[in-house]
Amino acid sequence: MQLKVTSLDNKQVGDIDLADEVFGLEHVRRDILARVVHWQLAKRRAGTHKTKGVTEVHGTKKKPWAQKGTGRARAGSLRSPQFRGGATIFGPVVRSHEFDLQKKVRRLGLKTALTSKQKEGKLVVLDNASLDSSKTAALAKQFAALGWTSVLIIDGPELNENFANAARNLPGIDVLPQQGANVYDILRRDTLVLTRDAVQHLEARLK
Predict the structure, then answer these.
(1) Global confidence as pTM
(2) 121-132 tens-digit pLDDT
(3) Is CATH 3.40.50.150 correct for 2-45+100-206?
(4) What distance lies between CA 77 and its chain's CA centroid?
(5) Domain ranges of the chain
(6) Beta strand residue intervals within the chain, DSSP E
(7) 70 burial type by CB count under 10 A (0-12 exposed, 13-18 middle, 19+ buried)
(8) pLDDT tens digits, residue range 6-57?
(9) Do the beta carbons of residue 54 and residue 77 sit within 8 Å?
């Protein structure tokens, strides 16, 4: 399929052929997108939640009352969960929430995310993402002329330093190198912008 190539000055500067096996899948598998996003977010979780067990609660180790003869229920420690200030039983512990996901599913998820943006008409190919200066105000004007408010911009392996610095303070704008392209960031922004270099590297990576 062919797509127009635009510049930061909002001018058409040519066309580009996109590979159907990367940007034109027949079906948008929402179940695959959900699986990959769940896998990504699980990896980000800190897993530092923690409650204290019986051995960690501060308190006496003395038996509260005699085992027999008081008419009360048996109790071995005031640090038990039935007492105020006692332990938590089966509470959360420090752990990793990460789980494995097959490589072919991750690849299919990225292809599906790219296809979904293309089918929605929210995929833009940019000639290049480079600036002569790192002025945020100037870049904001160019984005306003292009109508970009919620955008993920993916460049080649190396980002232009001026462009990355200028875009860093703009709300709703994310800039990534091609090796950082991922399903979650593509879906969380309304428009996906790829440079020519990004298209070339993504096709080589996913074909």
Answers:
(1) 0.86
(2) 999 999 999 999
(3) no
(4) 46
(5) 2-45+100-206, 51-91
(6) 2-6, 12-17, 123-126, 151-154, 173-176, 191-195
(7) exposed
(8) 999 989 989 999 999 999 999 999 999 999 999 999 999 999 999 999 999 9
(9) yes
